[in-house]
Write a structure and sequence with these properties.
By secondary structure, the chain is an alpha/beta fold. β23, α22 and β24 form a beta-alpha-beta unit. The chain has 25 helices and 30 strands. The longest helix is centred in the N-terminal third of the chain and has 20 residues.
Length: about 675
């Protein structure tokens, strides 16, 4: 039974310097891939969070000067007054729903590449920039430091003009000059900005004082600070200098926004950090050290955990980036007693990958994220049906479940048929692999919603053929029949020269492993897919006691997972499990007891012992039913998700959502209107 009193503390207002947040829900700064490049989309996304009930809604990091140029990434930008109107779009959208707007000002120091501005890179000391590029930053002299303080101050004034209520000084994620000055391994200065901690903290202190002096009369000043670099004694630790920094600056900021560094630790995936609230152990001392409100994060999706964190005095404000992406309406759902409707983040970091790839944010759980402006999608509302017609969805993977749910929300009669004994398709299968348990949340959320709807009928153990579909007499059919991993080893690396697979060789696919097969060792796992699956399969087989050789044509294990901030953890785990990793090797031959691979550069071949092989290359689309139903006179027949184009779970959810939204929409309209674009204004006076 929902007891509003239990959650009432979450809805208490909190005084933050000169402003007051209406509740304790605080969307901390997070990237969107929209930023200064797509300001209307950015404003609509943040406005949606405010509509969803967050008391504070923040921008992403916002560059203060051309010497902090993060191009080609689409972060915020406040280089001069011409950037103000774009940001005012955001503050207006946030204020419309009674939330406070926060801006995370940043100078990225040697994390900036300055590829657009071609400005020299600034750093506490002479050193290479932090990304692998042939470029060095120069040690800032006193004039540089004075200039930096002026830029930050000017940006704060512009932020105030743009309507922000909270202005950040940012010393976190290993990405900012203020933090670089704090860290002894980056700061080897011998002047008053280097050496002792008091000296290293001087720049952060000055930026806080400058910001307060400039805008503190109307704006709260927040400090985002990484209290632990998670490098043990090789970096800042919460128990030592992290705590000392909080003590030194105790009541100087109006808000302490604390987390761990770097970004991959702060936004840890569930595979490597399954526990929600995983930062609590690092945060808990902060509130005892300052009188100012503290906000903390850690993939906080459970309202009970939020309340317990308040009661235990760990934080004053519940910080969230990813949980607010997966469900921008968490606060409203809690307030309205709709806790079981919360769409929980699964910790997959596809959102982070969008930023890394320089494209608008996308989310596995929330297909409307990033589409608020360009497609006009709202996570809570969808247009009602035009006609009272019946629909059939075949397949209950992420695409089928999302399609069925959105059709049901539009008011159609929905029949969902699944061949397997359980609903969930690939998310169910994959969630049983090591570290991927949270994947099942994709199915759990949708099944919970579907089961409560009177207009939905759901059937398992129902593998439909064309005759059975005809018998049902439902004229509108969506086929989310998924895909199956191929076993011939064909993939992007082997297309020109397909591997020779001996007919008697023991070759398996990910589908076999997910259905419980444990091949004999030594087993070769060949990865031409490059995200998580091959690595997870290798892990599972190693844990089952098999000797595993992991072969990839790329130079890194699971190379796409660089974008989900997991790559080095995946490779480290495989090494810890004594898996023999062979990079830059293309599959050539699989025999009964051996396999041959060829170096991707020299074509030099090598042989390895191999009793069995798992080939993670490509998938075949499951289109048999589609083929059989084509031309049978159905009013609607549409392939959705992996059956239409195999991809990420996020792609399948998006496809299911889109199919349901576009149903009964005139084809011409749906085809012409892919999405709205923000096009550069070419008028002379727009420069
Ligand atoms: P997607 O990622 O596109 O949602 P999945 O592979 O996760 O695809 O799910 C496809 C689901 O469709 C699987 O659970 C599979 O059992 C089911 N399915 C495939 N063909 C049929 C069919 N003819 N009748 C009913 N269910 C089917
Ligand atoms: Fe969470 Fe994944 Fe969505 Fe990011 S993409 S918010 S990690 S569910």
């Amino acid at each position: 039974m929902f007891d509003a009193q239990v959650y009432a503390p979450l809805f208490e207002p909190v005084r933050l310097g000169p402003v007051t947040a209406k509740n304790r829900f605080y969307q901390v700064p997070h990237c969107t891939g929209l930023g200064h490049v797509r300001p209307r989309a950015e404003a609509a996304l943040r406005g949606m969070k405010a509509e969803g009930g967050w008391g504070v809604v923040s921008t992403q990091e916002t560059e203060i000067h051309p010497t902090s140029d993060l191009s080609p990434y689409a972060e915020g930008r406040l280089w001069d007054a011409r950037d103000v109107p774009a940001l005012r779009l955001m503050t207006d959208a946030v204020h419309e729903h009674g939330a406070l707007a926060a801006i995370q000002l940043v100078h990225n120091g040697n994390h900036a590449t300055n590829l657009l501005s071609r400005a020299p890179v600034l750093a506490p000391s002479d050193m290479s920039i932090s990304t692998a590029q042939p470029k060095q930053g120069r040690a800032m002299d006193k004039a540089d430091i004075r200039a930096l303080r002026q830029w930050h101050r000017d940006a704060a004034l512009r932020a105030k003009e743009a309507g922000f209520d909270i202005v950040y000084v940012y010393a976190g994620h290993g990405m900012t000059l203020a933090q670089h000055f704090l860290l002894p391994h980056m700061n080897s200065r011998s002047d008053e900005y280097g050496g002792s901690l008091e000296n290293r903290v001087r720049l952060t202190r000055e930026l806080l004082e400058d910001t307060r002096d400039a805008v503190g009369d109307t704006c709260a000043i927040a400090l985002r600070f990484a209290i632990d670099e998670m490098q043990g004694p090789d970096g800042m630790q919460a128990a030592e200098e992290g705590r000392a920094v909080v003590e030194l600056l105790a009541d100087l900021p109006d808000i302490w926004d604390v987390n761990v560094s770097d970004w991959s630790n702060d936004s840890a995936t569930t595979r490597f950090q399954p526990q929600d609230g995983y930062q609590n152990e690092y945060l808990s001392f902060v509130k005892q050290t300052t009188n100012k409100p503290v906000v903390g994060v850690g993939r906080l999706t459970s309202p009970d955990m939020m309340v317990s964190m308040l009661r235990k005095g760990i934080v004053d404000l519940i910080g969230a980036a990813r949980p607010s992406i997966a469900d921008p309406f968490i606060p409203r759902k809690i307030e309205e007693g709709r806790i079981d409707e919360i769409r929980e983040c699964i910790g997959c970091n596809i959102c982070a990958a969008s930023d890394a790839l320089g494209v608008p944010i996308r989310c596995t759980q929330n297909p409307t994220m990033g589409e608020e402006w360009r497609r006009g999608w709202h996570p809570e509302y969808i247009s009602p049906r035009k006609r009272a017609v019946e629909t059939l969805v075949v397949g209950s993977g992420p695409a089928g479940l999302e399609c069925a749910l959105q059709l049901a929300r539009r008011g159609y009669e929905v029949t969902l048929a699944e061949a397997d004994p359980e609903f969930g398709g690939r998310v169910l299968r994959e969630s049983r692999l090591p570290g991927l348990a949270a994947w099942s949340r994709v199915a759990d959320y949708r099944l919970n919603e579907l089961r409560q709807r009177a207009n939905v009928q759901m059937f398992t153990n129902s593998a439909l053929d064309a005759a059975q579909v005809a018998e049902l007499g439902i004229p509108h059919v969506f086929l989310a029949t998924g895909s199956s991993w191929r076993s011939d080893g064909l993939g992007r690396s082997t297309r020109r020269r397909p591997p020779q697979i001996k007919p008697s060789a023991k070759v398996f696919t990910p589908d076999d492993i997910m259905s419980g097969v444990v091949p004999d060792g030594p087993v070769m796992v060949y990865d031409d897919d490059h995200i998580y699956l091959a690595g997870v399969i290798a892990e599972k087989l190693a844990l089952a006691g098999r000797k595993v050789v992991f072969v990839t044509p790329e130079s890194l294990v699971s190379c796409f997972s660089v974008n989900t901030l997991e790559q080095y953890r995946i490779q480290a785990r495989l090494i810890e499990l004594d898996i023999d990793i062979r990079c830059n090797q293309v599959l050539h031959m699989v025999g009964d007891h051996e396999a041959t691979v060829a170096c991707g550069f020299s074509a030099r071949q090598s042989e390895m012992d191999c009793a069995s092989a798992v080939l993670v290359t490509e998938r075949h689309r499951n289109t048999t039913l589609f083929g059989a139903l084509r031309g049978t006179g159905l009013e609607t027949l549409e392939l959705v998700g992996d059956a239409a184009a195999p991809g990420l779970i996020a792609d399948a959810v998006f496809a299911g959502h889109r199919a349901a939204r576009d149903f009964e929409r005139p084809k011409s309209e749906a085809e012409q209107d892919w999405f709205r674009r923000e096009i550069t204004d070419l008028r002379e006076d727009a420069i």
